[in-house]
Amino acid sequence: KWDKILESIRDDNELSNVAFKTWLLPLKVFRIEGNILKITAPFEQAATYVENKYKTFLYVAVAEAMGEEYEIRIITEDEALKEKPLEPETPKKAAAAPAPKVAEEQKTNLNPRYTFDTFVIGSNNRFAHAAALAVAESPGKEYNPLFLYGGVGLGKTHLMHSVAHYILQQDPTKKVLYVTSEVFTNELIDSIRNGNNNSMTAFREKYRNIDVLLIDDVQFIIGKESTQEEFFHTFNALHSANKQIIISSDRPPKDMETLEARLQSRFEWGLIADISSPDYETRMAILRKKEELDGYNIDDEVIRYIATNIKSNIRELEGALNKLVALSNLEKREINISMAEEVLKDIISPNQKREVTPQVILDVVAEHYGISVSDIIGGKRNAEIVTPRQVVMYLCREITDTPYKAIGILLGNRDHSTIINGDGKVRKQLQANDGSLKNNIDIIRKKLSS
Ligand code: ADP
Ligand code: MG
């Protein structure tokens, strides 16, 4: 549980691995005293550093995970040794409060907050929500598998957990297993590594002897052959026994290019539902819901400010609100619009509202490859320049739908057949599975959309 909290801090704030390993991983929970959570750091400097830099994050993540706010105190391990033991009954009480939640969560490994009740329905997720609810009401009957896809932080995991909670609520004897595809892969690897039949049998029993299987972020098994193979058999075993399978991914099955074809077609057997970015009304509704769930009371103007400026990702939307609340608690400041502007200035970047035009693509690609725009437009023919140039052609087609001719004009009056060729070349390389090109393009796309 503590590890999960630390990981959520890393993920929500995109900490580097080094920072995470150096500062967060060594932190241990010492004890809870009333509403104070004491955490130890290995030595004095670490305690000070964490105190200055990560205390707000800890506060937010702990509140989120425990469903209750705790004041965070960071002490060194030496100081902890010197602390008086608590009165006999206090530690029991303190430990008893959060314990049931922890137990429940570990049992099903579901987030208790991710339920249908807390899920806000908007135009971006209406269909996915309806499909998920239908599946929850009659698992294994109608839509099998249910395949949910959409970008990061849009509610796939929340919806999957909601289905699992719902099914368990209707029938607690149902065996519901939720795993990420990474966990599935790791467990498979472990049982293969163990090298005996027992471990493989145990693995298969675990995954086949259930009523509902939820596999989150299935895109991570792309390219992992033995995992795909095993998952294929798991899928068949469950499906033919009318057991419900729910899969999430960041893209639809047809775009999972290097996924084994037979698995890809299985994913298309049931129902496919996408979740897209929330519109303004939905963003407002989500913020209001969170305000209500957490018992905050925040000025409408501030809520509107967040909803207007953070558009693409619900996790960021919530993160912004959490950050405001945490700071206002720590520094005893009132949340108002000027505080919001100040605190959220790193999250809300001015170019978030930037429209992606061919010119913007040109600038971002040049910057990404560390070359100049005039190089891209110019006549050089070395690979360091030609590849970025073709990437511009490709992205202009993909993102902006600009006609070849217009792209040619932008790129120093090149002929439209040159653009068709360049664009085609990138497509071919992507199809041929050029990992590094794909990676670069993914990063550029991210830069363009943020
Ligand atoms: P994904 O799995 O698609 O990356 P998550 O399910 O983890 O996204 O959602 C990110 C955060 O946004 C979670 O805290 C989740 O509760 C919240 N969230 C997403 N969609 C909704 C929604 N429709 N209503 C309320 N909260 C939502
Ligand atoms: Mg997820």
Automatic annotation (TrEMBL):
It is found in: Cytoplasm. Residues 357-426 form the Chromosomal replication initiator DnaA C-terminal domain. CDD domains: AAA, Bac_DnaA_C. Coiled coil: none annotated. InterPro entries: AAA+_ATPase, Chromosome_initiator_DnaA, Chromosome_initiator_DnaA-like, Chromosome_initiator_DnaA_CS, DnaA_C, DnaA_dom, DnaA_N_sf, P-loop_NTPase. Residues 142-273 form the AAA+ ATPase domain. It comes from the Bacteria. ATP binds at residues 153, 155-157. Residues 83-104 are annotated as: Disordered. Residues 83-92 have a biased composition (Basic and acidic residues). Residues 329-450 are annotated as: Domain IV, binds dsDNA. SUPFAM superfamilies: P-loop containing nucleoside triphosphate hydrolases, TrpR-like. Keywords: ATP-binding, Cytoplasm, DNA replication, DNA-binding, Lipid-binding, Nucleotide-binding. Residues 1-95 are annotated as: Domain I, interacts with DnaA modulators. Pfam families: Bac_DnaA (PF00308), Bac_DnaA_C (PF08299). Domain I is involved in oligomerization and binding regulators, domain II is flexibile and of varying length in different bacteria, domain III forms the AAA+ region, while domain IV binds dsDNA. PANTHER family: CHROMOSOMAL REPLICATION INITIATOR PROTEIN DNAA. Oligomerizes as a right-handed, spiral filament on DNA at oriC. Plays an essential role in the initiation and regulation of chromosomal replication. ATP-DnaA binds to the origin of replication (oriC) to initiate formation of the DNA replication initiation complex once per cell cycle. Binds the DnaA box (a 9 base pair repeat at the origin) and separates the double-stranded (ds)DNA. Forms a right-handed helical filament on oriC DNA; dsDNA binds to the exterior of the filament while single-stranded (ss)DNA is stabiized in the filament's interior. Belongs to the DnaA family. This is Chromosomal replication initiator protein DnaA.
